[in-house]
Amino acid sequence: MTEAGSLDIFLRGARAQVDEALERYLPRPPACPQVISDAMRYSVFAGGKRLRPTLTLAAADAVVRRAGRLPDGTELPAACAIELIHTYSLVHDDLPAMDNDTLRRGRPTLHVVYGDGLAILAGDGLQAEAFGLLVREPPTLDTDIQARKLRVLGVVAAAAGTGGLVGGQAVDLQAAGQGAAHTATLRAEDLRNMHASKTGALIRAAAVCGAIMAGGDDETVDVLDHYAADLGLAFQIVDDILDVEGNTAELGKTTGKDASGAKPTYPSLYGIERSRVLAADAASRAKQVIQAARLGHGWLAPIADWVVSRRN
Amino acid sequence: MTEAGSLDIFLRGARAQVDEALERYLPRPPACPQVISDAMRYSVFAGGKRLRPTLTLAAADAVVRRAGRLPDGTELPAACAIELIHTYSLVHDDLPAMDNDTLRRGRPTLHVVYGDGLAILAGDGLQAEAFGLLVREPPTLDTDIQARKLRVLGVVAAAAGTGGLVGGQAVDLQAAGQGAAHTATLRAEDLRNMHASKTGALIRAAAVCGAIMAGGDDETVDVLDHYAADLGLAFQIVDDILDVEGNTAELGKTTGKDASGAKPTYPSLYGIERSRVLAADAASRAKQVIQAARLGHGWLAPIADWVVSRRN
Question: What pTM value is reported for the model?
Fold first, then answer.
């Protein structure tokens, strides 16, 4: 079997496991009103790539594999919580007051179907459920696992908060408000910093939480953090390229939007060809750091290759 | 000194302690962008009553007082985190897509000053910071305190989530959308359930978290939960009465809005006089439950009296 074919099996398996767990973890009536359950599930089960939770599983797998142990599944709640945070951020980013997107993963965005008010609430609920899930699962009185859970809670809160997702989106919102005049003066460093918060922080958190729950030591956690920082950069650059080159049907979201909204992107700053090189370089660095730490025999390296070769 | 005068000293002291701690706990540049720091602080330091964090401090004080111990301050982060959750919920509830309020605590609401997009983000950020704060503070390697922190994190996540704040607001949003026709058929039980989630859950969490951090046993935590459930009910009924009777200048928010929006309220269902009796009964039950548990010598009983006698 080719490496790509083998990776495909892992990606599908991870997606299925995450979807099944999310279905169990998300609240249902009578624990919550029907309408908020429906709204949250509409966005959570919209057929996303599940990159972040897959990374959590792959990171945990690499750490236990190197230690000659078997995965114990304690990383699955962290994987799912991070996907809930990611989903909430998409729901809020799509709102008319933010990016005003009406199409996501080939379907109308949540606010188009349920209204802005309920979309705000569903996003708020997803964030709260993410933290609640991290506290509840896995249920344990083991003080080591409790300490890991607390550490993961801190990593996720930092990635979701004003130094991560929320901060990056605030900078993005301000940049978009300043329009084309801003783009012209936006430096490469600003672009990189914005994405580091807006996309990178949660991707890093995904890998880091996998390593923590798998019992990785500080050095291992640090390696996964570096790997994911470069992976996230590659992912973002490819996203920008696909936005220019792709078409709406293939990507399932409105394309060409970055340019029309005068948002800064890698292609607009560097051109397509140079952007491709930057993405490949970042993926290459990601692979090197895990190979140097003897964590290269699992799925982390193939995932880095997939991130730059993907077509959607 | 009268009991009311003495309570006033406690309330002012608690408010000052909470404000000072919030000032320390909230992120600042370079940990986050300036604009999101400014937006969060605009709403957090808008001169609220600080009922919830005060309850946390009073609950912890009552528990350690009964045990003949001194408070150790470990409840302060929980008090502040709950106030951040409360503030975020007000910011989002005030949005045009929700209650569309333009005045809060005597000042323009956050979205009026910073725009809807940044108000959504500031609310999102406050929620994330609340959980981050609960993880970070108090910094400790003590496994008992870590277990308490995890328990508090679970209580706050449940109160903030779809079974609490978010769920209650979703029901409220649906009821408002159905307008006057709905009010006519709304049963007293529905009204009580909506408020139990929307207001009650976080007020209960405030008292419960104080008891947990103070090392209270399960029975004590349960007593505080019952106390706060009745206190929250009394608080909500009085809020509804003040909305009918008060004026905008005194309350610092737009009054008469409940009736104009055809939202169900206690006065609209029971009339003013009967509503007053219901509030007094609830406060009385709250005092009885703590007195029966020998927790009546601190500030919890005077707070119950204050909640029904307050003018704003």
Answer: 0.93
